[in-house]
Amino acid sequence: MTLVKMIRHLQEKNAVPVQRMCVTCRYFDPFVHRGKGRPYHCHFVDASFDRQEFRVDCRDHEQADPAFRAAAWEAFQTAYPTL
Ligand code: SF4
Q1: Which residues lie with the beta carbon below 6 Å from any ligand 1 atom?
Q2: Do residues 25 and 58 lie in contact, with contact meaning Cβ atoms separated by under 8 Å?
Q3: Residue with CA nearest ligand 1 atom 6
C-alpha cells in the first residue's frame, strides 16, 4: 500500500502520468466487504479482492470522477493511516 500512496502523491503533484490504479478507478468500491478477508470490490469483474490483488496498472481501469476518487482515497487513508 506504500507504493500506491507514493504513486498517488506523485500523480496529484503532476510529477508522473496518471496510473491505472484501483484507487482512481470508477469500478473500485473500497471496503464494501468491510471486516472480511477480501474487503475491496471491483464492479468491472464483480468480484471482491484483497491487498495482494490491488492493481497499479490495470488494463480495465476507467478514471473515476474527482469526487469519487477523493472519497475512495479518504476511505483508503482511514484504513491504512501509517503506511
Ligand atoms: S477495473 Fe481494474 S483498476 Fe478498476 S477496480 Fe477493477 S481491478 Fe481495479
Answers
A1: 20, 22, 25, 27-28, 42, 44, 55, 58, 60-61
A2: yes
A3: 42
Tens of pLDDT along the chain (83 residues) come to 777 778 777 877 777 677 788 988 999 998 788 788 888 999 999 999 988 898 888 999 999 998 998 888 888 777 665 54
Closest CA to 26 of 43, 7, 3: 43
**Among protein residues, the one whose CA lies closest to atom 5 of ligand 1:** 28
Residue 31: all three cell numbers together = 471496503
